[in-house]
Amino acid sequence: MSLTYNPGRVAGLWYLLLMALGPLFLIYIPSKLFVSGNAAATVSNIAAHERLFRVGILAELVGGVILIFLVLSFYRLFEDVNRYQAVLVVILGGVMPAVIYFVNAVNDLGALMVARGAAFLLVFDQPQRDALAMVFLRLHSYQIDASLVLAGAWLFPLAMLVYRSRFLPRFLGVWLAIGGLGWLILSLLAILAPEYQHKVFVIFQPAFFGEIALMLWLVIRGAKPPVLAAAAPSSAVA
Description:
Blueprint: H1 7-33, H2 39-48, H3 50-78, H4 83-116, H5 126-153, H6 155-165, H7 170-192, H8 197-220, H9 226-237
Helix pairs in contact: 1-3, 1-8, 2-4, 2-5, 3-4, 4-5, 4-6, 5-7, 6-7, 7-8
């Protein structure tokens, strides 16, 4: 089945690429470089493994670009189902999170500048420079917490589109909606009660697999709106 006439598979491949890249800059690199509660050790690790830290910055920038292509492919897939909800997917799931990705890259570059010991920072002693670097890194972390609102909000219009589409299983739409609710709850806890965030994340973790299920369905089975499905045979004949 041609990718040209299977926008669902195109979306699935973008989704797969994003899910493969995300753990690199969200989990792997922070786990290797960041030492909880120890600013000096964290800054020392960043300075000693500068290339790895830069790879994480680049991965986040690339992830933001991939996110834009992903939501545009969703728009193409679902625009005939409900154009307004498809636009919401583009804005809430692509444009706004991508901006956060790019701002986070700037924060990381700021932390790297401090870790490398820029000449104009010599007016501060080392503990002060370590603390300044941690401010940039904490801002990155807080922006990720803030973006959880968008991680939940975009799943509601996407869930409605999947549910109404009739060319994707309805249970995927329900699963996505439950996952969206979970992300919204986590975003509220990040602000109001961060000490409970991890426990609630564990409880809702099965709900978050709905996005993985959708991605796998699109990659393996694909999906075509009826309009494109009808147009494909005539184009092939021509």
